[in-house]
Amino acid sequence: MRIVTIGGGAAALYFGILMKNAHPRHEITILERNRLDDTYGFGVVFSDATQNNLATADPETYDALAHEFFHWDDISIHYRGHVIRSGGHGFSGLSRRALLRVLGRRCEELGVCIEVGTDVTDPAVYADADLVVGADGFSSVVRSTYVEHFQPTLDERPNRFVWLGTTRPFPAFTFYFKGDKHGLWRVHAYQYEKGHSTLIVETTEAAWRKAGLDRASEADTVEFCEALFKDELQGHRLLKNRSLWRNFVTIKNASWSHGNVVLVGDAAHTAHFSVGSGTKLAIEDAIALANALQRHPDVPFALTEYEAERRPAVESLQRAAQVSLQWFEDTERYMNLEPLQFAFNLLTRSLRITHDNLKVRDPKFVESIDEWYAKRAEEQSRVPLTAHRAPPPMFTPFKLRDLVLSNRVVVSPMCQYVAEDGMPNEWHLVHLGSRAIGGAGLVFTEMTDVSREGRISPGCTGMYKPDHVAAWKRIVDFVHVNSGAKIAMQLGHAGRKASTQRMWEGMDEPLPDGNWPIISASPLPYFPYSQVPKEMTRADMDEVKQHFVRAAQMSHDAGFDLLELHFAHGYLLASFISPLTNQRTDEYGGSLENRMRFPLEVFDAVRGAWPAHKPLSVRISAVDWAPGGMQPGDAVEVARLLKAHDCDITDVSAGQTVAEAKPQYGRQFQTPFADRIRHDVGIATMAVGNISSYQDVNTILAAGRADLCVLARAHLWDPYWTRHAAYEQGHPLPWPDPYATLNKYKPRL
User: Fold this and answer.
1) Among the listed residues 178, 189, 174, 203, the one whose alpha carbon sits nearest the alpha carbon of residue 84
2) Whole domain around residue 284: which residue ranges?
3) Which residues are CB-neighbours of 374 under 8 A, at least 6 positions away?
């Protein structure tokens, strides 16, 4: 096979080694414009897991590299005069020049041809090769030549960073967070060989410009950073190597191959330096590509297999990198956290490391986090914790007004669609009762409608008839008598999403017959073929507001502990908030302040009718996931208005506003919205959305991303999810008396 690789970085060299090892008769040429030792940057980082991959792929090359590694286990975080350390992380630094030198030498030994000084401007010249590999980095000529086939997207991020070196040997992967008159500066530093370290400085565009660095030369940048980090450098100097201020760009491609041409490394994808090395990604690409070609002699088929195998891992890392880079873009948000929580928040920022992962890596660090969190929970709830050791964060109490929850796990509102004229029945008793016995601290009813016309479907529960109070009270009493859980009522009105079929019949699909009149902020149907709602008049608003007040009073009579109003998912009150569903030209349309006017009228009326000692929550949609819709910044302002009107906690969901929305699903995909609102507004939040493991719950809570975690599917799958989580973590959670024999079994330690 004749292989031409354009670009002579680590991926190209390693791929050449692997292919020559597999078939010495392969004719492999690597074309590189610059000398191999003329490289950008100073050091690269490999995790222990990546090193294992290298050792498996080619032991001889790995052994040569291992002699160059500088290994460390600790991460050191310098924050507000404190130094917090966490161990057990397992990374190695390596000089980029040493890496390329070792790989280049191995290529020469194996007979790979490296042509230095060849500047490829037209990859099509090599189209007659069996395989053309685009390993030419961020500014890939190969990618731009076949742009219509690869269909790249480039997302330039707002922060500025500069890649520097220093002679100071950092003993751990080190983060500095340092403020000056210009703003906050972040430093990522690590040693890559004896006596030399990489030092990356990152800051916001505003701080960078305020410091005059938009006009700085490379020498000016070094001078500025040496002065700023004089104490941190401890007398050592900074080194430059094309050390210019840059914006990080996230690159993705719709396809990685075209015919016999394939992309690897930064030509195909980039991931922010805060989650690891782009070199690591590139070398792992080379391993996957070589393996695919060795399995399949047909090149186009092998390239398809390579991408199918490799893309999920790359996209997973890119998602983690996106979360991580956003953390560093928004670090100012977390600068009021106490040092220990700040460190935990930083370490778990990408969602790849959890409370449980850290417990394996550094048990003492996690023990200190648990003790700190338990102490704060004790102060907040005024409930003394008597256990001999701190409980996991999820099993600490939380107080809202006079309501004290025994733990932070919440059963999410989940519509059941089995009521008759709004009447809850035995199904609801078993559904809610079993999950209360299952150990959750708070159990929510499904969205319960304040009027018959406000129901989503004919099977939805309501709180609009006197008989409803007694039926709900039966369920509330069961929960209170037979469990330690509290129970919350969620009140809503479906608006333009009313008069539809039950979920299993066709979610949001209009009823085939028997429809009732529907209302909304504006006369816009959900689907083009859905009913057209009536635009609400002032009289309609007054009537709906009274329905909410009536339902709130009835909910108190039924004994509910907490009340939540549904301002999300495109239902009636949400339809006023989103510009996609509110096209009014009166005082209830236009600006966000105007669009919030009616929802806040309802909130104020309900707050006045709901007892002062009981908490009131609001569920909001933080983003519409549709052009022109609500954005996370808008949700912050919604939460700010709610806080000003005496809302106790926001239940932060997202989407479901319009049918054409394109949600960005993923693990904990809505938690960042709760996190932002909690810190920017200073209001308690509930996080919801693909939270499924107790490790996720403990991580979200300990990091300060939310105060409560709301789980839906996990509780459908396992009503006793909370008890099982307690058992797995060795936390005692007594069973009800009828199950007393189970108390004889000790929880797992």
Assistant:
1) 174
2) 2-329
3) 385, 390, 391, 393, 396
Q: Is residue 441, in this structure, part of any structural domain at all?
A: yes
**pLDDT 10s digits, 492-523:** 999 999 999 898 898 889 999 989 999 999 99
The residues near 316 (Cβ < 8 Å, ≥ 6 apart) are none
Both 495 and 573 in one domain: the answer is yes
Q: Does 532 reside within a domain? A: yes
Written as one string, the DSSP assignment of 134-148 is E---TT-HHHHHTHH
531, with CB counted inside 10 A (0-12, 13-18, 19+), is buried
Among 176, 571, 588, 727, the one annotated catalytic: 571
Contact (Cβ atoms closer than 8 angstroms) between residue 642 and residue 603: yes
User: What band does 312 get if pLDDT is binned at 50, 70 and 90?
Assistant: very high
Higher pLDDT, 276 or 573: 573
* 565 in the same domain as 418: yes
- Same domain assignment for residues 140 and 219: yes
Q: Is residue 716 part of a domain?
A: yes
Q: Residue 150: what are its φ and ψ, rounded to 5°?
A: -80, -30
CA–CA gap between residue 161 and residue 225 (Å, rounded): 12
Question: Of 314, 329, 344, at which residue does a domain stop?
Answer: 329
Q: Give residue 239's pLDDT band: very low, low, confident or very high (50, 70, 90).
A: very high
Q: What is the CATH number of the domain that holds 525?
A: 3.20.20.70
In this structure, are residues 32 and 115 in contact, taking their beta carbons and an 8 Å threshold?
A: yes
The upper half-sphere exposure of residue 13, i.e. CA atoms within 13 Å in the direction of its Cβ, equals 24
pLDDT tens-digit map of 527-585: 999 999 999 999 999 999 999 999 999 999 999 999 999 999 999 999 999 999 999 99
Domain count, the chain: 2
Exposed/middle/buried for 14, CB within 10 Å: 0-12, 13-18, 19+?
buried
Give the domain-ending residue among 329, 347, 368: 329
Residue 250 belongs to domain with CATH number: 3.50.50.60
Rounded Cα gap, residues 120 and 139, in angstroms: 12
In whole angstroms, give the CA distance from residue 205 to residue 213.
10
Are both 180 and 319 inside the same structural domain?
Answer: yes
Burial 166-205 (b: 16+ CB within 10 A, else e): bebebebbbbbbbeeebbebbbbbbbbbeebbbbbbbbbb
340 located within any domain = no
Residue 571 annotated among the catalytic residues of the structure: yes
What predicted TM-score, i.e. pTM, was given to this entire model? 0.92
Task: Return the beta strands (E) in 33-146 as ranges.
Answer: 43-47, 70-72, 75-79, 82-86, 91-95, 113-116, 131-134
